[in-house]
Write a structure and sequence with these properties.
Length: 218
């Protein structure tokens, strides 16, 4: 939720910056070049320090990645503002201010849209993007004693952990091996697909679900 709020805020800020930049192109306003250079310089130092603090943690957490992106966006914004202020001081190029604003907004929106999808996928319990569902089912059905798989449901528990719920139909005469087969399936899924959270409902061939679907629930 924190990551979603962060990215949503960044997207709103991006569109607001575009709005302000367009207004400044239509009605240019006076800008104190020295003032914005000094303020942006102080902000840049703070942004760089906070970005360094969140960089290492951003590799393994979408929450920290959102915070890091926020820091980077602020730092780039500060660099752009310093550049714009310098151009205004040296050449009185006031159009640089809204132009740089548009560039900052474009970067913020691009990065936010690229990351927000993964956040929504986790919150909505979406299927893992890096797991081929049919391959997992085929792997399970290749284990001795397994007749078929149905009602398979893949979903994201968190950023780096996927889960699987499924019904496993055993061959006739193998019900006594149900626990051993289940353990074998879990071990195979963990080693080959890094699926460490699996909920398996075992069914004997004579009492399996009628007209089942492989994925999801009918």
């Amino acid at each position: 939720m924190a990551a979603l709020i962060n990215y949503t805020t960044l997207i709103i800020i991006g569109f607001y910056l575009i709005y302000e930049a367009v207004l400044r192109f239509i009605e240019p306003q006076g800008v104190n070049g020295w003032l914005i250079v000094i303020i942006a310089g102080i902000a840049l130092i703070i942004d760089l320090i906070t970005a360094l603090l969140t960089y290492s943690m951003s590799k393994s957490s979408m929450n920290m990645r959102a915070a890091f992106l926020h820091n980077v966006a602020d730092a780039l914004g500060s660099v752009a503002v310093i550049f714009a202020g310098t151009m205004i001081i040296l050449f009185d190029w006031r159009f640089v201010d809204p132009l740089v604003t548009l560039m900052i907004a474009g970067y913020i929106l691009w990065q936010s849209y690229a990351e927000i999808g993964a956040v929504i996928r986790v919150l909505m319990l979406g299927s893992p993007p890096d797991i081929e569902s049919q391959k997992v089912v085929n792997e399970i059905e290749g284990i001795s004693g397994v007749q078929s798989v149905h009602h398979a449901h893949f979903w994201m528990m968190e950023e780096h952990q996927a889960a699987l719920d499924a019904h496993i139909v055993l061959d006739e005469g193998r019900w006594g091996d149900a626990d051993a087969i289940k353990d074998q399936i879990k071990a195979r899924l963990l080693s080959k697909f890094d699926l460490d959270h699996t909920t398996l409902e075992m069914e004997c061939a004579r009492h399996a679900c009628k007209d089942p679907v492989t994925f999801g629930h009918a």
